[in-house]
């Protein structure tokens, strides 16, 4: 007899953020967007932001994740993290791929998102424990709040022969905070 336990999985869409605890799982599918995952063992919570762009033209203090510089403080606030707790936060970064090709810097949104995430996390004094960034393929970031772990799976587009299905998941990386 097999018993399946259905774990609540929250899909975090573009420009969204989510906070979970206990058995929650937070997941984002990323290309040039960047996923910022915060794992807080002592607080028993995790957060995930799915950021589209590096910096908002102006910040008004509202919660959100469209921009990296908006997402970092928003996640910390929603998770209830105080400045004294920052040393206990483990950060996972994924995404930031070059999905549009070419050398036009305006189209290098992935690289700009990576630079912004590193800059704003460093400003907060948050330690990035794992990065899966850049390249030219998408990634899926999954954060499991139950055991404070993460998994990053590469999503590759491969040429396939007519009539044959392919598995888009090229490889996976797993870790614990």
UniProtKB/TrEMBL annotation:
Signal peptide: none annotated. Keywords: Chemotaxis, Hydrolase. Pfam families: CheD. The keyword Transport does not apply. It comes from the Bacteria. GO terms for biological process: chemotaxis. InterPro entries: CheD-like_sf, Chemorcpt_Glu_NH3ase_CheD, Cytotoxic_necrot_fac-like_cat. Its EC number is 3.5.1.44. Transmembrane segments: none annotated. The keyword Chaperone does not apply. GO terms for molecular function: protein-glutamine glutaminase activity. PANTHER family: CHEMORECEPTOR GLUTAMINE DEAMIDASE CHED 1-RELATED, CHEMORECEPTOR GLUTAMINE DEAMIDASE CHED-RELATED. This is Chemotaxis protein CheD. It comes from Janthinobacterium psychrotolerans.
